[in-house]
């Protein structure tokens, strides 16, 4: 008990020393104002990175390429080295994979029981990409801009272009389900929700951007940049990774099941036809 109290006292002392040092240090000066920092976090029109030494692109595109490459390599390693060794009694890693796959497969079956094969694969892919891509910013990987300044690579979907691409891709998947289930009628059902790709894109972009802006704001002021960014950044990132993965996949599954459902026409029985003809006589 005394050891726990002693450890807690040491932690509190360390936090107080860090806060005192932050307040006494003050701000050393910035190359840009807080308004410019927040604007660039949204538009990425200043801190751009040369793609393979050529065209300047947003840091979010570099993050997207990095996350995609990591996921593809990880999936290849799992398929070659892990899946062939699956056992009837699963281990921890096998159980984690099965639960993660089963989460999206169950979501697809519950929302589109009549057509869910491709839907389950898509939900698993997009949910994994959003989750891993959001957690990617916690790594704090640095890149050099075209002006020679270091910049931290953000989450891929905190760039509005990435969020719009994800929303439009999900809308095309929903449209494909409507065509597969109802032909041209499915196209009409899908086109009724013409604002769906916009709402999905900007919901995803706004949620991820809010966490990025809060973290940028906390880091900007030196008096707040000790201890607090760790708590704020980790909590916001984990929360957004879980919520946005669930929200976008659930919306896609709901609309996919709605537009791909085949309407059932009630069948008339033979006795009903005879009674109807007798009533007409």
Note the topology.
Elements: H1 2-25, H2 34-43, E1 49-50, E2 56-57, H3 59-82, H4 92-111, H5 117-135, E3 142-144, E4 150-152, H6 160-182, H7 184-192, H8 196-220, H9 228-260, H10 270-280
Antiparallel strand pairs: 1-2, 3-4
Helix pairs in contact: 2-8, 4-5, 4-9, 5-9, 6-7, 6-8, 6-9, 8-9
Write structural notes for this entry.
With 281 residues, the chain is mostly helical. The chain has one domain (32-261). It is 70% helix and 4% strand. It contains ten helices and four strands. The protein has helices at residues 2-25, 34-43, 59-82, 92-111, 117-135, 160-182, 184-192, 196-220, 228-260, 270-280, and strands spanning 49-50, 56-57, 142-144, 150-152. The strands form two sheets. Strands 1-2 form a two-stranded antiparallel ribbon. A hairpin with a 5-residue loop joins strand 1 and strand 2 (56-57). Helix 4 packs across helix 5 (117-135) and helix 5 (117-135) packs antiparallel against helix 9. The termini are far apart. The relative contact order is 0.13. Mean pLDDT is 78; it is low at 273-281.
Distance between the termini: 95 Å
Global shape: globular
Q: How would a crystallographer describe the biggest sheet?
A: 2 strands, antiparallel
Strand order of the largest sheet: 1-2
**Separate helix tally:** 10
Strand content: under 5%
Q: Would you tell me the overall average pLDDT?
A: 78
Structural class: mainly alpha
How many domains comprise the coordinates? 1
Q: Using DSSP, what is the number of strands?
A: 4
The helix content is over 70%
Low-confidence stretches: 273-281
**Compute the gyration radius: what is it?**
26 Å
Order of helices and strands: HHEEHHHEEHHHHH
């Amino acid at each position: 008990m005394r050891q726990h109290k002693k450890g807690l006292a040491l932690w509190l002392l360390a936090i107080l020393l860090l806060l005192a040092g932050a307040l006494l240090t003050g701000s050393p000066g910035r190359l840009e104002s807080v308004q410019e920092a927040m604007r660039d976090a949204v538009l990425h029109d200043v801190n751009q990175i040369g793609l393979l030494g050529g065209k300047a692109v947003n840091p979010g595109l570099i993050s997207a390429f990095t996350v995609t490459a990591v996921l593809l390599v990880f999936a290849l390693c799992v398929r070659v080295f892990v899946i062939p060794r699956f056992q009837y009694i699963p281990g921890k890693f096998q159980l984690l994979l099965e639960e993660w796959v089963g989460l999206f497969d169950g979501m697809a079956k519950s929302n589109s029981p009549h057509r869910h094969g491709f839907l389950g694969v898509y939900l698993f892919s997009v949910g994994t990409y959003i989750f891993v891509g959001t957690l990617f910013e916690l790594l704090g990987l640095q890149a050099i801009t075209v002006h020679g300044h270091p910049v931290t690579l953000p989450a891929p979907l905190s760039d509005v272009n990435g969020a719009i691409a994800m929303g439009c891709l999900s809308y095309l998947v929903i449209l494909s389900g409507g065509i597969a289930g109802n032909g041209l009628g499915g196209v009409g059902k899908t086109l009724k929700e013409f604002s769906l790709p916009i709402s999905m894109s900007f919901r995803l972009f706004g949620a991820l951007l809010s966490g990025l802006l809060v973290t940028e704001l906390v880091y900007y002021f030196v008096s707040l940049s000790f201890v607090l960014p760790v708590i704020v950044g980790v909590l916001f990132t984990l929360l957004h990774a879980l919520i946005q993965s669930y929200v976008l996949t659930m919306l896609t599954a709901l609309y996919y099941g709605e537009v791909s459902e085949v309407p059932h026409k009630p069948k008339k029985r033979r006795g009903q036809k005879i009674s109807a003809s007798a009533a007409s006589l």
